[in-house]
Recover the amino acids of this structure.
């Protein structure tokens, strides 16, 4: 795969991520909110029976040193559902062992690429 193709796939939703991050920041969370988005196999090489064909994915993370207690976790779930994203997992859980990886509260979702096309194809 060419480097240009890899970079295009990496940044295909960058503008939309920035727009959504601004919307999420207006919810006034006590944590820093991060959002990443992408799509499964943009060349549509998946068989028609694959449930991920034509789907995109996303993850919203709450970067902070605790669970989210200020109600913004639920507000972000509502925001995602209003965008008609399919919330596939949610975890208001924080864990850190010194010298190990940190696990932040997060919300993972799917969406139809047809409804949310890439902003930087």
């Amino acid at each position: 795969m060419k480097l240009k193709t890899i970079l295009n796939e990496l940044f295909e939703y960058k503008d939309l991520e920035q727009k959504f991050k601004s919307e999420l920041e207006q919810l006034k969370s006590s944590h820093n909110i991060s959002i990443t988005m992408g799509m499964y196999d943009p060349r549509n090489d998946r068989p028609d029976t694959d449930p991920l064909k034509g789907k995109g994915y996303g993850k919203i993370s709450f970067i902070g040193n605790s669970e989210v207690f200020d109600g913004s976790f639920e507000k972000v779930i509502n925001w995602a559902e209003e965008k008609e994203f399919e919330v596939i997992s949610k975890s208001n859980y924080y864990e850190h062992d010194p010298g190990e990886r940190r696990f932040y509260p997060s919300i993972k979702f799917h969406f139809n690429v047809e409804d949310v096309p890439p902003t930087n194809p």
